[in-house]
Design goal:
- By secondary structure, the protein is α/β, with parallel strands linked by helices.
- It folds into two domains: 10-282 and 462-471 and 484-554, Alkaline Phosphatase, subunit A, CATH 3.40.720.10; 284-303 and 346-453, no CATH class.
- Strands 1, 2, 5, 6, 7, 8, 9, 21, 22 and 23 form a ten-stranded mixed sheet that branches. Strands 14-15-17-16 form a four-stranded antiparallel sheet.
- The longest helix is centred in the middle third of the chain and has 28 residues, at 177-204.
- The chain starts with 9 loop residues before the first strand and ends with a helix.
């Protein structure tokens, strides 16, 4: 390595969903001493996430330094070739080299834990690698090399809370305080255990890169935000009394774990503390498919009618009055998907008449039923496509925010405005910013009221574009408040610290504003033509995919 600025070790701590809008008031109240110390002794900036600020493309953009149009990850799900169906995406679907593969090629090892969208782990690892969600409930292996799997299992490692059976979007008649308390306690317990295991692995060998993600902050803000926000329709004095400090507790635990990592790794290394996105209130939902039906963009078959349905065995038995039998089934058997006859009263995607449908909701956006791309596409590319997207965007301007009577749509964003690259066809064609992302588009097919305010839905917080970037250590300027940086800037900045040439096709830039010493950025040939993490074989069995889908539904991600 050449140049004074190069370092021998970089430690990245991901604080999922963390925002300065929570950090700064807590520090002013005397909380979060470790974050305060790192900001005082280092540099900070708002970190701009991807659009929309969704965890899978955000983390992978951080790991590749490239936008989703290049690396191919847009969601926890992906388009299933030759159909309108979706399937669960995995680390094998990443079509670019990641930070870990670039470092390995340079002969540098790394240790990683709990980064979303990294299952299955790479086959060959210089160090250790423990995958983050989505991971099957009973994975054959979420760690590499195999010896690490044995270590974490013996230590009681849990990938995440098992959210199967949760419905975060269902309005509850009464708040289930006991369930909220159990969830909060277990989330903290899981995070503390994960940190303990990560630190034990990190101490085994002094690896050049350590990268771990604390997910507690994301989960707690999703489920407990309304208890701190008087503007939310689900706020109550009783809820605030019980759980008004839940978000604070999550940040305090994350700060404690940050302090433990710094103590274990020392002061002579470079630290990056990053979040994949920020956070804010989730006030309501916009049932996008229902709106598209109402406005003539989707044509549906008639309902109700008899049809075959599919669901987990435990749910089918419960519907038949055999709930006691369902309770006796082992988890994997109860989660097995089975078919059964039923009266279909509510429409869904299987009722779409594709030959008469112009556009539909998909993966938090709108996808045009484009001829030559979709199996039953009817919209011609070019002028017809452009005219349709403009027509939809114009019609969306008439939607009214039920909270204040103002226009709900903040911005309608074409994919070409935010993405570029060979995998652009995997993306929705339009993204919607609804009231500053305080309302989310859903794929609900309800034909009635399409704009709904949330009250006692378990999910009450959601993502924002503005995350955090904090850097510390010898190569970082002290007390520097920087202009915003982008999530794709993290990878080239880490390579810069290691004095590794940066691939020319990287979308991010080195965060030179944070560096004590500046030197010319060295470039190398593009890596886009190489086979990145992507492999052709599927990562999940059909049963595992069903289980993961149910868990992601419980987490509110699909």
């Amino acid at each position: 390595m050449n140049g004074k600025i190069s370092v021998t070790r970089v430690v990245v701590i991901g604080l999922d969903g963390v925002t300065f809008e929570v950090i700064d008031p807590l520090i002013a109240q005397g909380e979060l001493p470790n974050l305060k110390r790192m900001m005082t002794n280092g540099s900070r900036a708002i970190l701009q996430s991807v659009v929309p600020p969704y965890s899978p493309p955000a983390w992978i953009s951080m790991l590749t330094g490239k936008n989703p149009g290049k690396h191919g990850i847009f969601h926890f799900l992906k388009r299933k070739g030759g159909s309108y169906d979706l399937e669960v995406a995995s680390f094998r679907d990443v079509r670019e080299n990641t930070l870990f593969s670039i470092l390995a090629r340079e002969g540098l090892g790394s240790g990683a834990m709990n980064i979303p969208m990294t299952y299955p782990p790479p086959d060959r690892v210089r160090g250790f690698f423990v995958s983050g969600i989505p991971v099957p409930p009973d994975p054959r292996s979420c760690a590499s090399p195999p010896a690490i799997q044995e270590v974490i299992q013996a230590a009681g490692y849990e990938v995440d809370y098992d959210f199967r059976g949760f419905d975060p979007n269902r309005e509850e008649e009464e708040d289930r305080w006991g369930d909220y308390q159990h969830l909060l306690d277990r989330l903290i317990e899981i995070e503390r255990k994960r940190a303990e295991i990560f630190l034990n692995l990190a101490r085994r060998e002094e690896l050049p890169l350590l990268f771990t993600v604390i997910s507690l902050t994301d989960r707690v803000q999703h489920y407990f935000w309304r208890f701190t926000d008087p503007q939310h329709r689900g706020y109550s004095e009783e809820g605030n009394r019980r759980f008004g400090d839940a978000v604070r507790r999550a940040y305090v635990v994350a700060d404690e774990i940050l302090g433990q990592i710094v103590e274990a790794c020392g002061d002579d290394v470079a630290y990056f503390v990053v979040s994949d996105h920020g956070f804010g209130p989730h006030y309501g939902d916009f049932h996008l498919n229902g709106w598209l039906v109402q406005n003539g963009f989707i044509k549906m078959k008639r309902t109700p009618r008899w049809t075959l349905k599919r669901g987990p065995l435990r749910h089918v038995l419960a519907r038949l009055g055999a709930g006691f039998v369902a309770s006796l089934l082992p988890g994997s058997i109860g989660a097995r998907m089975v078919c059964y006859p039923g009266r279909k009263r509510h429409p869904d995607r299987n009722d779409v008449v594709w030959s008469k449908t112009k556009a539909f909701a998909s993966m938090y956006g709108i996808r045009v039923n484009l001829k030559g791309r979709e199996p039953g596409g009817i919209v011609e590319a070019g002028k017809a496509y452009q005219d349709l997207t403009r027509e939809i965007a114009k019609a969306l301007e008439g939607i009214v925010n039920p909270m204040n009577g103002k226009r709900l749509l903040t911005e309608c964003i074409a994919k070409e405005e935010v993405f570029s690259g060979p995998h652009l066809d995997g993306s929705p064609d339009l993204f919607l910013d609804l009231a500053g992302i305080s309302f989310l588009p859903t794929e609900n097919w309800s034909i009635g009221e399409t704009c709904i305010l949330r009250k006692k839905c378990p999910f009450s917080g959601t993502h924002r574009i503005e995350g955090i970037f904090i850097a510390g250590g010898p190569p970082i300027l002290r007390g520097k408040l920087m202009s915003p940086v982008r999530i794709m800037d993290i990878l080239p900045s880490i390579l810069y610290l290691f004095d590794i040439p940066i691939p020319r096709d990287i979308d991010g830039n080195v965060i030179l504003e944070a560096m004590v010493e500046k030197r010319p950025v060295r470039l190398q040939a593009s890596t886009s033509e190489e086979a990145g993490e992507g492999k052709s074989e599927k990562a999940y069995s059909e049963e595992e995919e069903d289980q993961i889908t149910e868990n992601l539904k419980g987490m509110g991600y699909i």
